[in-house]
Amino acid sequence: MEIQYPIDNLIPEIVSDSNMYSGYDYVISHLESKEQRAKYAPDKEPKTEYDFNTPEEYAAYLEQQIYAAKVRDAIIGTLKRQIADGSFRITLKDVKTLRVKDGPKERECQAPKVPKRVGCHCIMVVVEKYTYPSLIHNTGASIKGRGMHWMHHIIEDDIKAVPGLFTHYYKNDISHYYDSISQERMKCVIRQYISDSVLLPILDSFITLLPEGLSKGLRSSQTFGNLFISPVHHKMLSMAERYFISNEDGSVEVRYLYYNYCDDTAIGGNDKKRLWQLRDVYVEEMAKLGLTVKPNEAVRPLTDGLDMVGYVHYPTHTLLRKRTKQNAARKLAKVKSRKRRQKIIGSFKGMACHADCKHLYFKLTHHQMQKFSEMGISYTPANGKEMLPGNVVRLAALQNKTIEVHKFVSGQETGYGKDRYIVSCRDPQTGTWMKFFTSSEEMKQILEKVRDVDGFPFETIIQSEVFDGNKVKYKFT
User: Which domain of life is it from (predicted)?
Assistant: First the structure.
């Protein structure tokens, strides 16, 4: 169904248990320090007494788990109240300013305290759910499933599909993008999408955290940055070169030779004069938003190499960006620790395996690089149990939410007991894979019966039912 803007009444969805708890789990799981993660959340798969040398160690562990659960519930309770009544804010007192190196550049970023980070994340997950469908397909920065490698392969596929149409390109970069965004204009843009009177002041506080421009550390700035220049991308898309692909199901897909990744944009074509005309339109539209294109913009033949998202694309092959190769070579030349060396090699391989870099990889690491798909190797767990994708979530986080149940594994033992089932499920809206444990005899019996009739996957809504005064039972509906 097409979304009608502006959208109102988003607060109930933001403060729902499923959104708050899943958002909390996401933020905590991405904290760098193991001690921090232990402080803010209990283990999803608790340890048992057999994991400790003494009963005292196990008792201390259980006490720490109880404390972490209380911390989590207290933070979520406070955030729910503040977001629901519209008092949630992020101010300069709530952030720590850091100097972060991004390649040759050094940026000043704001890192919010953990509770504020959780609140911002939970809000923006819902905001993005309703605003991101308005973006063009070929934009990829900070959008789930549309990262650097995704954008790289989109460009690579287009070059191979229409080599005669993609012989030249125009490439540019916006000067000081986040710093140059007008806060007042950004507020107006947000109001084109959202009209929730409780939510808007909260979003405004994210926009005005700094005296000028947008913060480079807030989770919200990534979303705002994509929305701010979206109208320009839509206009340029209508003028860009395109081609058509016929799918097996008979549908026709339109592909555009226009690519955006945050403040970087590239336009493909086979006519230099036409590309310069598109450049003039692009620069003019950006100027209307108060943005300036850097002077290093250019129209070049593809044989010179299109440098985008860390890769240099040529008509017949793709290489890594020179800076990426140099950084890897310097780190490998200096590193002494074997463990650190393996980490650097793994990171480098994660980039190199998406390009034509087997010789480079061998030259730097002295290892031959094979594609995993060519090895014919698969993982067989020691206990014979199948490993299910996604993070473990609590059933409470899935309550009243539509999910797809795909499979289950029985006979699991956790700190809460034996013979539990672990169930693999998927959020049909976001495509996120999750799994949850259950000891419910009702759920277990239903899962067995669904398997007997070959009913996987199936769609359901998990609901709770209170019995015996204060006990809660979850069930499929």
Answer: Bacteria
Whether 435 and 388 have beta carbons less than 8 Å apart is answered as: yes
Pairing mode, strands 402-414 and 458-467: antiparallel
Please, which residues have CB within 8 angstroms of residue 55's CB and are 6 or more apart in sequence? 49
Do residues 424 and 416 touch, judged by C-beta distance below 8 A?
no
d(CA 433, CA 206): 29
- Residue 388 structure tokens: 């299910």
Sign of the torsion formed by the C-alpha atoms of 250, 404, 119 and 108: negative
pLDDT digits (tens, 9 = 90+) for 164-192: 999 999 999 999 999 999 999 999 999 99
Angle, alpha carbons 309-186-13 (nearest 5°): 85
Phi-psi region of 310 (alpha: psi -120 to 50; beta: other; left: phi over 0): left
pLDDT digits (tens, 9 = 90+) for 125-179: 999 999 999 999 998 877 888 888 899 999 999 999 999 999 999 999 999 999 9
Instruction: Please give the span between the terminal C-alpha atoms of the chain, in angstroms, as a whole number.
Output: 24
Characterize 63-85 residue by residue with b for buried, 16 or more Cβ atoms within 10 angstroms of its Cβ, and e for exposed.
Answer: eebeebeebbeebbeebbebbee
pTM score, whole prediction = 0.74
